[in-house]
Design a protein that fits this description.
289 residues; D-amino Acid Aminotransferase, Chain A, domain 1; 2 domains; nine-stranded mixed β-sheet; 16 strands; 27% helix; globular
Length: 289
């Protein structure tokens, strides 16, 4: 049985100090817990180097501003803190979780005077999906919840509250024997998986949903560049669910998922092929995995 995340050994960077893992605590009345005023990042380190570190930190700053607060540290300071956290935990390959949230000085919807806290944790994290399942393509359920419209939520922020429906959707999918779930947007168009972007292949061309109500992922952009380097055409567009019937390959991308082929989404079937395998390998080569 794995060790609970609050019982691990190591160190967490917390508001400028490196503290013992067990001492990195927040109060039960912290605003981020009750009202979702929390943003975060997920980053991977390969061979002692944090992949796309500054891009992740810049997105953390952007997400905080989308939720109406400024981080008390610069991008350079947070970058340095991430590197220090990786080193303090004696990690070469691992996962990092920078997180920022409103504190407990005020309790209520309004929290204008609450302290903005920042913490960074790092730990070992193997493949997000079962390695054997990943190679043959994972199976996705169709989620009942949909990504919200931009007018209803700060959908371009990596904000904790926006992941509530992702947790519900992934739990339901896992209960049915699936690895994850595909979410539509509020219009009924294909959007993304619960924590990863999605790509399809048709006649050697990549098709991917336009990120107009969900994150344009850092891994997504990286894989698109790898595809262009191979001379592959990429079309960002509206994709209707029934169009999945005509795609031959499918894969998802994300910091945790990296590049993972998909064999099934609800009633639709795909066969992991040359393009999925090539981009999977190109990404591994790029990050040094």
């Amino acid at each position: 049985m794995s060790v609970s995340f609050d019982q691990r050994d190591g160190y967490i960077w917390y508001n400028g100090d490196m503290v013992a893992w067990a001492d990195a605590q927040v109060h039960v009345l912290t605003h981020g817990l009750h009202y979702g005023s929390c943003v975060f990042e997920g980053e991977r380190a390969y061979g002692g180097s944090i992949f796309k570190l500054t891009e992740h930190t810049e997105r953390l700053v952007f997400s905080a501003r989308e939720l109406g607060f400024e981080l008390p540290y610069s991008v350079e300071e947070i970058d340095r803190a991430c590197e220090e956290t990786l080193k303090a935990n004696n990690l070469v390959d691992g996962y990092l979780r920078p997180v920022a949230w409103r504190g407990s000085e005020m309790m209520g919807v309004s929290a204008q005077n609450n302290r903005i806290n920042v913490a960074i944790a790092a730990w070992e994290w193997p493949s997000y999906f079962n390695p054997e399942e990943r190679l043959k393509g994972i199976r996705l359920d169709m989620a009942k919840y949909r990504r919200p419209a931009p007018e209803t939520a700060p959908c371009f922020a990596k904000a904790a509250g926006l992941y509530m429906i992702c947790t519900l959707s992934k739990h339901e999918a896992e209960g049915k024997g699936y690895a994850d779930a595909l979410m539509l947007d509020w219009r009924g168009h294909v959007a993304e998986a619960t924590g990863a972007n999605v790509f399809f292949v048709q006649d050697g061309v990549l098709h991917t949903p336009t990120p107009d109500c969900f994150l344009d992922g850092i891994t997504r952009r990286t894989v698109m560049q790898l595809a262009r380097d191979r001379g592959l055409e990429i079309i960002e567009r509206t994709i209707l669910p029934e169009e999945m019937q005509g795609f031959s390959e499918c894969f998802i991308t994300g910091t945790a998922a990296e590049v993972t082929p998909v064999s099934e989404i609800g009633p639709y079937r795909f066969t992991p092929g040359e393009i999925s395998a090539a981009l999977m390998q190109d990404y591994s080569t790029l990050v040094g995995a």
